Amino acid sequence: MTQPGDWSxxxxxxxxxxxxxxxxxxxxxxxxxxxxxxxxxxCDVKLSRDGQPFLLHDATLERTTSARGPAAERDxxxxxxxxxxGWHSRAFAGEPPPSLEAIAxxxxxxxxxxxxxxxxxxGHEATTGSAVALACRRLWQGxxxxxxxxxxxxxxxxxxxxxxxEIPRALLxxxxxxxxxATAQALACVAVVxxxxxxxxxxxxxxxxxxxxxxxxxxxxxxDARRLLTLGLDGLISDAVDRFAPAAAGLPG
Length: 253
Fold this sequence. Notes:
This protein is an alpha/beta fold. It has a single domain (12-59, 98-248), classed as Phosphatidylinositol (PI) phosphodiesterase (TIM Barrel, Alpha-Beta Barrel), CATH 3.20.20. Helices cover 30% and strands 17% of the residues. The chain is built from eight helices and nine strands. The protein has helices at residues 27-35, 76-79, 100-110, 125-139, 154-163, 180-186, 201-209, 222-231, and strands spanning 12-14, 40-47, 53-55, 113-118, 147-151, 169-173, 191-195, 213-217, 235-238. A nine-stranded mixed β-sheet has the order 1-9-8-7-6-5-4-2-3. Helix 6 links the parallel strand 6 and strand 7. The longest helix has 15 residues, at 125-139.
């Protein structure tokens, strides 16, 4: 398992498996992303009503599955039978939501790095952070494949820190709220993952002075990627898995 002081993540990280090319947060998306040469992936993980960590971005089901209503109000036995692919295209109809365990097996079997965004349903921040951390501690025990937690929710990261302090953490930032750096430091984060529009030379210098790695989401434009790479970014999370080519230094042209 990756230790907090290490940094073995690839530079290019596929957003939710394959960006928009496949239904997000599914095993199919991970396979599509890998087919384009990506070797590091980001996904969103929350809990079912009965405590099963599984992949889903939204608090509700209607955007990306065949059901409606809050995900946290259904047991995994029901969630696992939903169609999480048909919304995207007919080619993926019937693709189920995967458990965190299924994704863990997949990435470790293939030697892929994984950024788990802890994405709690509202009111379940600490419970989700703790459950995801304990599951990952078990699933990655003895594994050399890189693993990173991230979250917009400090309470979820704090719970993950208490449950599995050895798993590296990153604070996600949509904007630079007052006290963000103190929060990242209090959580013993190794990195900050910011909206790419926030990243500039001043923010990069601030992160480097604090000993923090710098990652950005969601970097889909070539000019944006070029600018960020010039700043010395450590990770670019992207939907554009068919546009960037990690194995060939990333940028087209």
